[in-house]
Amino acid sequence: MPDATKTTAAEAVAETPVAAKVVDGGEASGKPRSLWGDAWRDLRRRPLFVISAALIVVLILVAAFPGLFTDANPESGDLQNHFLEKPNLGHFFQADWFGYDRQGRSIYARVIFGARNSIMVGLGVTILVTAFGGLVGMLAGYFGGFWDSLLSRIVDVFFGIPFLLGAMVVLNAFTDRTAMVIIGALAFLGWTQIARVMRGAVITTKHADYVMAAKALGAGTGRILFRHILPNALAPVIVVATISLGTYIVAESTLSFLGLGFGNDSFSWGSDISDALNDIRNNPHTLIFPAGMLSITVLAFIMMGDAVREALDPKLR
After folding, report:
1. Residue 271, Cα to own-chain centre: how many angstroms?
2. Domain ABC transmembrane type-1, which positions (predicted)?
3. Partner of 72 for a Cys bridge, out of 42, 95, 194, 223, CB 3.0 to 4.6 A?
4. pLDDT band per the 50, 70, 90 thresholds, residue 35
């Protein structure tokens, strides 16, 4: 007669899932979590992600609804009363909070309205390069052979063009540099990094067992690419795209600073920084606030990218 105090293997197996459901102090659903579920669970506990996400939400609100943050006219200047007037830091969110520039315009209003063009360019370029570069990299990595060689050589050609120098040449051909023109110029030259990252991820993923099983079951190429390979190869692309977004915002500001982006008739942190160079010694506030806003924006997206990278890479957890 077996000893009643001993637990059989079957009983142990039956009891194991109950204990396994308690994960990180909480009850799990019993279903295995995906990479994205684990990443989201990890991200919510990272102060770096919370801080950067809060900053990005505020910046997007500022870009989408600038009228909620100021009622001052960024184009209206009063040289008689506000010529290079110093900041009045006691008047929070008022027109004179950051002072006035050489044209008597409110720096605070220009910083608020300048967020729209910079963030719109950054998001627009990121979406285009992720879509196009991801597609090129996915096709090259999946089909291999001739197509991989052809697409990789095209990527190498574009990768060899200096990004800012090439953008300057392209934009110099346009007299009316609208947001769509700037987005198109930057996306035309900036998709190569995403293509390389996606290609490498697809080459690793296409040999997985679930892809082989899908082929054996007769799944079509489109279904295999977009239902099986893409979701599992997307993680490194998202990391690169998030970090690159800040780079595109810097690129737009640099081009505007050089006079090849948004002009004085539009609002851009880069053009405001350029206008402030002559007053940097005696009136540094004309430079500090637009440059500071640009730095905070870029830092927020870089912090977001670092947090996402750590959450999606199990080795860094």
Report:
1. 22
2. 115-305
3. 95
4. low
The helix (run of H) or strand (run of E) holding residue 312 is helix 285-312
| Coil vs helix vs strand at 259 | coil
In angstroms, rounded to a whole number, what is the distance separating the alpha carbons of residues 275 and 109?
A: 15
Q: What percent of the chain has pLDDT over 70?
A: 87
Cβ atoms within 10 Å of 272's Cβ, excluding its own: 27
The letter for the amino acid at 279 is D
* Cα distance between residue 120 and residue 109, in whole Å: 18
- CA-to-CA separations, 171 to 129, 164, 168, 259, in angstroms, rounded: 18, 10, 5, 10
Neighbours of 147 (CB within 10 A): 13
Q: How far apart are CA 101 and CA 108, in angstroms?
A: 10
Domains of the chain as residue ranges with CATH: 52-316 (1.10.3720.10)
* Distance spanning both ends of the chain, measured CA to CA: 49
Work out whether the CA dihedral 61, 66, 71, 72 comes out positive or negative: positive
The pLDDT tens digits for 250-274 are: 999 999 999 888 876 788 999 999 9
Contact 9, 282 (CB under 8 A): no
DSSP string, 31-42: SPP-HHHHHHHH
Specify the pairing of strand 22-23 against strand 26-27: antiparallel
Own/partner long-range contacts of 29-35 (Cβ < 8 Å, ≥24 apart): 35/232, 35/235, 35/312
Taking residue 310's Cβ as centre, other Cβ atoms within 10 Å add up to 19
Most distant CA atoms of the chain, gap in Å: 104
As a whole number of angstroms, the distance between CA 144 and CA 86 comes to: 62
Q: Which amino acid is at 93?
A: F
Q: How far apart are CA 16 and CA 32, in angstroms?
A: 15
Q: Given the structure tokens 């505007």, which residue do they identify? A: 256
